[in-house]
Design a protein that fits this description.
Blueprint: H1 2-5, H2 28-50, H3 57-69, H4 82-95, H5 102-115, H6 132-145, H7 148-153, H8 156-166, H9 183-195, H10 207-212, H11 231-244, H12 252-260, H13 282-285, H14 289-299, H15 314-324, H16 342-356, E1 357-359, E2 364-366, H17 387-397, H18 412-415
Antiparallel strand pairs: 1-2
The structure holds zinc ion.
């Protein structure tokens, strides 16, 4: 493996040259950056000389398995995000290639069924209002399970009603009826609609232009037009455009420049925005953009593209995740000193998978840092579930019809 032959980047003498310089301008973040940088320096130096970077598979598995059945009081604040917990845990398990027991999978299906709103879409918990974020999480979780029982949970007719109920005249979507508009909603809507085969041009009319208006002078995308570029929103907007087949309408080169500049020179992980601290979850939100951009440039006929590597430092990201983001008792985290949680576990592992696997089904090149035991399953860069689960869901739902008759009349703007 490439990774085993290559010495660790962070053990090079010249690595400390990459430490943060505040250019004489002190801010809250720059102070944290300097003290955090010194911490990472000692962690990286200590770990890189004493250990080979090792994925703590068994510990993560135990942590995830327990989370599927029992959550501590600390998760009370996520009572409106329960389908998310299902997705974060199930996706982490599929990346680790750990099977889900049929009885557990069936229980998750029944739980998600209880989160489905009578008017369509999924809510954050039983009896709550439908919301696009848990709808995305629930559909992804059900596609990971991938059984007839799982697919049959989704009421596609009502899901389409729900999507129309949050669609806005300018092409954007609200997160829920009466809720906020931002680019996450366009991605959640496009993701669930495409997976379940209810995507129609009419439903996404003007959505492309609305998303494009979120790309700002930095090159990345903001949550709504006119704000600061941000990793999570940039991923959502770009992935939504990929689903809609319109990613070429972005300024791809400006976006590429912005995202590669978000990989931290010293830490190796990504920051979410310019001048922010590194955070493990951006290992997916930012690094996950590189496969999308690679594909977009390939389609445009760009001749200089590598056929072996994404356009970011894949080894440095793997070092950051494996050396700095693992809790020794299982679970992954934002940065050293922070506590583990299922969100960071999911997105650190997703980013690690992106950094390990280049290519797609036809062309594939692996770069696994450390031993082969560190290898995760590949993830689909648009949906962030394993590619064969995407293929199976598409195959299943494409047998079912999509009907659009009368839908626009029920949209939010006509109701209010
Ligand atoms: Zn984070």
């Amino acid at each position: 493996m490439d990774g085993e032959q290559t010495p660790l980047r962070c053990s090079h003498e010249c690595h400390c040259v990459e430490m943060f310089v505040d250019d004489g301008v002190e801010s809250v973040t720059s102070v944290e950056q300097v003290s955090g940088g010194a911490d990472y320096c000692s962690i990286l130096t200590r770990l890189s000389f004493t250990f080979r970077p090792t994925l703590l598979r068994e510990q993560h598995y135990q942590y995830l398995k327990k989370g599927l059945r029992h959550l501590s009081d600390a998760y009370e604040c996520l009572d409106a995000s329960r389908p998310w917990l299902c997705f974060w845990i199930l996706h982490s398990l599929e990346l680790l290639e750990e099977a889900i027991a049929p009885a557990v999978a069936s229980d998750v299906c029944q739980f998600l069924l209880s989160c489905q709103s009578p008017t369509g879409g999924f809510a954050g918990g039983p009896g709550q209002h439908a919301h696009l974020a848990p709808t995305y999480a629930a559909v992804n979780a059900l596609c990971i399970i991938g059984t007839e029982e799982a697919y049959n949970v989704i009421d596609r007719e009502k899901l389409l009603d729900f999507l129309w109920s949050v669609k806005q005249p300018d092409g954007s979507f609200r997160m829920h009826i009466g809720g906020e508009v931002d680019v996450r909603s366009a991605y959640c809507a496009a993701s669930v609609a495409s997976l379940t085969n209810i995507l129609t041009p009419k439903l996404f009319e003007d959505t492309t232009n609305w998303i494009l208006s979120c790309q700002n002078w930095e090159g990345g995308l903001s949550g709504v037009p006119g704000l600061e570029a941000h990793g999570g929103y940039t991923f959502c907007g770009t992935a939504a455009l990929v689903i809609l087949g319109k990613e070429h309408m972005l300024d791809i080169k400006a976006l590429l420049r912005w995202v590669v500049s978000r990989q931290m020179r010293f830490e190796g992980g990504f920051q979410g925005r310019c001048n922010k601290l590194v955070d493990g979850c951006y290992s997916f939100w930012q690094a996950g953009l590189l496969p999308l951009l690679h594909r977009a440039l390939f389609k445009e006929g760009e001749s200089e593209l590598s056929r072996q590597r994404w356009m970011f430092e894949q080894q440095a990201l793997q070092e950051y995740i494996l050396l700095c983001c693992q809790n020794p008792t299982g679970g992954l985290l934002d940065k050293p000193g922070k506590s583990r949680d299922f969100y960071h576990t999911c997105y650190c592992l997703s980013g690690l998978s992106i950094a390990q696997h280049f290519g797609n089904m036809e062309l594939h090149h692996e770069m696994i840092l450390g031993s082969e035991e560190n290898r995760l399953a590949p993830t689909h860069p648009v949906y962030n579930i394993c590619p064969e689960k995407v293929a199976r869901a598409l195959q299943h739902f494409h047998r079912l019809s999509v009907s659009e008759a009368g839908r626009p009349a029920r949209s939010a703007e006509h109701q209010s």
